[in-house]
Amino acid sequence: MLKVIAEAVNDSIKLQETTQETTQETTQEKILKLIKENPAITQTQMAKMLNVTRDGIAYNVKFLKENGKIERIGSTKNGTWKILD
Length: 85
Known about the structure:
Helices cover 67% and strands 9% of the residues. The protein is mainly α. Helix 1 (2-37) crosses helix 3 (54-66) and helix 2 packs across helix 3.
């Protein structure tokens, strides 16, 4: 009985991790698409367009920057995004 419960918990954890990874990838892909369409877009604008919190956008932008996918050129207010791929 305990083995069955442990397997169910492990399956649930794996599903949760997969869902989180998929959601992040999808959000990051959407962010890249928005940047391609408008390199001057702000994180606040991205958040409104994707119906995600500003913190959620900041998290994904930080991940994209740290992994060499995007960089910010210029100042926070007047700069633009550059996709590095």
